Amino acid sequence: MAGDDAPETGDDAPETGDVTVVVLAGGRSVRFGSDKLAAPLAGTTVLDHLLAALPGSWRVVAVGEPRATGREVAWTREDPPGGGPLAGVAAGVAVVRTGLVAVVAGDMPYAAPALVALAATLDAAPPGIHAAVGTDDEGVANPLLAVYRAAAVRDALPHPAHGRPAKTLLALAHVAVPVPGAASRDVDTPRDLEDLTP
């Protein structure tokens, strides 16, 4: 079951080489018509499908209203709530203590393997590269399917981050990594979910 407490925010030095994943789980699901993260997919839910596929060694920080999940998750929330995805990233990154932070939208159920590849790409990149960002089948970069150097993304975040576009993060020096097919797709509508259902 999910933990309801936000992770501790002590002043320990980052654990370089490790990865924490920040999952954005606070959207309103307006286009879907109901809670899309709880929608059934392949015997589980959209959110749990993503969580279950993430590497077991990665700590997971989810940003949103706490809910039960099949994997242990530390929950946090942007203050005030409802500030958009960049505010969610800011809230999640604020409690990350690893050198790398993966960022993913909770409605991307097949994104886990892409995040692993992005982390490996960034880990092998020179210090001047601060992110590995996934691009979809049309070549569009998605800042919510990316792995960042945590210190760099903290420096790049505007204050406040509420209401600011997530693509602000693309100003960081980054490597674009093609992520074809379902791994780069999210669930915005019931038709999207149908298309992603095996």
Structure report:
The chain has about 200 residues and is an alpha/beta fold. The protein has a single domain (about 15-190), classed as Spore Coat Polysaccharide Biosynthesis Protein SpsA, Chain A (Alpha-Beta Complex). It has helices at about 45-55, 85-95, 110-125, 150-155, 190-195; strands at about 15-25, 40, 45, 60-65, 75, 100-105, 130-135, 140-150, 175-180. The strands form two sheets. It has a seven-stranded mixed beta sheet with strand order 5-4-1-6-8-7-9. Strands 2-3 form a two-stranded antiparallel ribbon. A hairpin with a 5-residue loop joins strand 7 and strand 8 (about 140-150). It is globular, with a radius of gyration of 15 Å.
Task: Considering the chains and any ligands shown, give keywords for the structure.
disordered N terminus, alpha/beta, single chain, 7-stranded mixed beta sheet, globular
In a nutshell, what does this entry contain?
With 198 residues, the protein is of the alpha/beta class.
Low-confidence stretches: 1-17
Mean pLDDT across the residues is 90
| β-strand amount | 15-25%
The figure for the number of domains is 1
* Helical content class: 10-25%
CATH superfamily: Spore Coat Polysaccharide Biosynthesis Protein SpsA, Chain A
How would you summarize the topology of this molecule?
Elements: E1 15-24, E2 40-41, E3 44-45, H1 46-53, E4 59-63, E5 74-76, H2 85-93, E6 98-105, H3 112-124, E7 131-135, E8 141-149, H4 150-156, E9 174-178, H5 190-196
Parallel strand pairs: 1-4, 1-6, 4-5, 7-9
Antiparallel strand pairs: 2-3, 6-8, 7-8
Domain MobA-like NTP transferase: 21-169
Protein name: MobA-like NTP transferase domain-containing protein
Keywords: Transferase
